[in-house]
Write a structure and sequence with these properties.
With 406 residues, the protein is mainly alpha-helical. The protein has a single domain, classed as Growth Hormone, Chain: A (Up-down Bundle). It is built from 20 helices and no strands.
Length: 406
């Protein structure tokens, strides 16, 4: 029954474009978090303080969030496939800049800013991949494309051993050459979707933030997606500094958590369809809060820390899927626009995580209070969501956050 439904899904759209969008997003995520994966190498060469490391890792996340809207605007005028190819060309330029021109900490900050172009890919990739599919299958298509955030795990797995073998700066050069592969995949496999992409001005994007629900959804996404991208960028540094593991081992341990978060995203959407997005997010926010406090308190145990981080990232991944099960229910006629704005706020929030962790470590000598702050914010969003859901279930959702039966 499930396989038959999946075959119907594949027949209803254009599978090569779906794969191209996934591959493009996966490669973009590899590039977006590359500095995080190589942070132990970079900080060793430039003798960076905890605060400097945090700043270096935060800039790509914030820049990626800010660049999402301009890339989406470009896609409206030149098409999603063309915008994808333009962004991949910019990524190639960024990698070439990193290989040839980074010689100081100031150069690293410029490089970090340029890396933001990779983080701008999310909205265009989603629209490109799901554009061939009818409304009843768009959620599944977006979930499959969204699994491209597994690129964070790939970066953590591949970048450190390459940096150890050839030098961290050479990894930028390798990535510049590797960018030709997603370009070829998009050029040869992707076809511009026939659906009308939602044309929206900045005013329309900001419209959902004039409503309380828009802010609640955005701030929950700060926990789930912002927490995912912010913590995964910071984790190689945490493992290396806190436990003294090798730089390659720090990447491998980070990969375990990142891969769990990426894989569970699709399952989170499926669970939310059946159990309700509010119910799913309730469990997610509680698990995230307690897991992160546990991580902060278990700083003497590498095994316990890793197990708690895997649990935390599983919850974060499920939370990302759950939140975007609710978005089309709340904004059925402007899903893409609302989702884009929520995604931008979530990514901006994630950009504060490495910087905050660096400042906490520098001023208090421990990462504990950084984890506690994120945990408390998660519980605050849980309390606000449970209060708001009383009205939600009277207006646009069934009990627990399920879709209303027609």
């Amino acid at each position: 029954m499930v396989m038959a439904g999946f075959r119907d899904f594949l027949k209803s759209g254009h599978t090569p474009t779906l794969f191209a969008a996934f591959f493009y997003l996966m490669f973009s995520f590899v590039i977006w978090v590359m500095n995080g994966a190589m942070a132990p190498f970079i900080s060793e060469q430039f003798h960076l303080s905890a605060a400097q490391k945090g700043m270096l890792l935060s800039i790509p996340i914030v820049a990626g969030a800010i660049m999402r809207f301009p890339l989406g605007l470009l896609a409206q005028y030149v098409g999603r496939k063309t915008a994808t190819l333009v962004e991949l060309c910019l990524i190639t330029f960024t990698m070439a800049f990193g290989y040839f021109f980074v010689h100081s900490y100031d150069d690293l900050l410029k490089m970090a800013l340029l890396l933001g172009v990779a983080g701008a890919s999310f909205g265009v990739a989603m629209s490109l991949g799901s554009g061939w599919y009818p409304p009843k299958y768009k959620g599944l298509a977006m979930g499959l494309v969204g699994a491209g955030n597994s690129g964070t795990a790939l970066a953590a797995l591949l970048a450190p051993p390459l940096a150890q073998a050839y030098g961290w700066q050479a990894v930028y050069g390798i990535a510049a050459v590797a960018s030709l592969l997603p370009m070829a995949v998009v050029l040869l496999l992707a076809k511009e979707p026939p659906d009308r992409d939602e044309h929206a001005s900045m005013k329309e994007h900001l419209a959902c933030l004039r409503e309380g629900d828009g802010w609640v959804f955005s701030l929950i996404y700060v926990v789930t997606f912002g927490g995912f991208i912010g913590i995964v960028t910071f984790l190689p540094t945490y493992y290396y500094d806190q436990f003294g593991v090798s730089k390659v081992q720090a990447g491998q341990l980070t990969m375990l958590a990142a891969l769990m978060g990426a894989l569970v995203r699709v399952a989170g959407g499926w669970i939310s369809d059946h159990w309700g997005g509010v119910n799913t997010l309730t469990v997610v926010l509680v698990v995230v809060a307690f897991a992160l406090v546990g991580v902060g308190l278990s700083s003497g145990s590498l095994v316990l820390t890793t197990l708690l981080l895997i649990l935390c990232f599983a919850a974060l991944g499920a939370g990302n899927g759950a939140l975007f099960q609710l978005v089309p229910l709340r904004w059925p006629t402007s899903t893409a626009v609302a989702g884009s704005m929520i995604g931008e706020i979530g990514a901006l929030g994630g950009g504060t995580v490495p910087a905050m962790m660096g400042q906490v470590k520098q001023h208090f000598g421990s990462f504990l209070w950084g984890f506690v702050v994120i945990a408390l914010f998660s519980l605050l969003m849980l309390a606000i969501m449970r209060q708001m859901q009383v009205r939600w279930t009277r207006t646009w959702a069934e009990k627990g956050g399920r879709a209303r039966s027609m």
